Amino acid sequence: MPKLMIGKQDFKQIDINTETLRRIVLLGGNGKYTASIANPNIASLKIVQDTLKIMGLYEGQTYATIHSHNFSKRLNIAVVPPRLSFSHNEIRLRPADYSQFVTLNGGGKDVHIELDDPQDCLQYKWNANTNIIELFPRYEGEAIIRAKSEKGEEQSLKVYVQSSDRIETQDIGFYSTRSGSVYPIFGTPLFAFVKGKGLWLFSSAQADMSSKNRVFIEALPSLKKGTYADVKLHFYLFKDKLSNELKTDTYKLFVEEIDAEKVYLRGKGFRFVLPSYFIE
After folding, report:
1. Within 13 A of 279's CA, how many CA atoms are on the CB side?
2. Which residues have a Cβ under 8 Å from the Cβ of 214 and sit 6 or more positions away?
3. Among 41, 72, 114, 147, which residue's Cβ finds the most Cβ atoms within 10 Å?
4. Which of 177, 161, 162 minimizes the C-alpha distance to 115?
5. Domain containing 49: what range?
6. Do 42 and 93 fall within a single domain?
7. Are 11 and 78 in contact (CB under 8 A)?
């Protein structure tokens, strides 16, 4: 009579996730099998013909004893939490869209969530009971949600908040990035560059310092795509709530793109498209 084997590998120990079913084909013996579990609170057992079915219930360790004729074998069982993982590797949202949901699986009971969002483009809610993260896009930008399990395992989710418009098609001007489509905060029929000083954007066709909507961007010696730059901005706005939010100050702007004709700078909820000679 062939010896009893737990699977072709003749397992001595297995790891199984909580709420996960594992099937192992039993071999040898007289073809009739019985099994018992030391701690039924950790895992449950069932034998269907020659198949051992093990269900992980709660984290912990236990063992099963399998019998066939005069043979007995012990199988050590460790029930562990699933590996930490997001339901997406990355996700793309549009500004001001309805909230979107992603799932974070595994990692145990104490998973730490951290948001890396230098431009405040995203807000989120984490429900540890349902393993669901709800994402609220605000305006254009990029963010990373990092998760760390109680055992130190780490995973990250890249979130892109982008409008449906291509920045390359935008004219020189000042734009809002707070909706699904980028739109000008004010029309810019005139812009004026003062060498060594900076660039004026006017809402009128004349360089009128009494213009109700105008912005002055102080000159920068150099910019590099994909980096942040501290830029002094002077706002003179009389339109919607932005006039209360945007004041003369130094802003950290992200350099989205630099091409032969234009420079694209993105701030929190706004974008500048400037002529390339703005970089001195």
Report:
1. 17
2. 200, 201, 202, 203, 236
3. 147
4. 161
5. 5-80
6. no
7. no
Residue 213 CA neighbour count, 13 Å, CB half: 18
Same domain membership, residue 234 and residue 144: no
Record the pTM.
Answer: 0.68
Reported for 2-8, long-range contacts at CB under 8 A and 24+ positions apart, including other chains, are 2/27, 2/28, 2/29, 3/28, 3/29, 3/71, 4/28, 4/29, 4/66, 4/68, 4/71, 4/72, 4/73, 5/73, 6/52, 6/66, 6/73, 6/75
- CB neighbour list of residue 101: distance below 8 Å, 6 or more residues apart: 132, 133, 134, 135
**Single residue among 80, 114, 144 that ends a domain in this structure:** 80
- Which two three-digit tokens encode residue 181? 């489509």
* Mean pLDDT per 10-residue segment, the chain (280 residues): 90 90 93 93 93 92 93 93 87 88 84 90 91 92 91 90 73 87 84 87 76 84 88 81 77 90 90 84
Which residues fall within 8 angstroms of residue 78, CB to CB, at 6 or more apart? 13, 14, 15, 16, 60, 61
CATH code at position 32: 2.60.40.1080
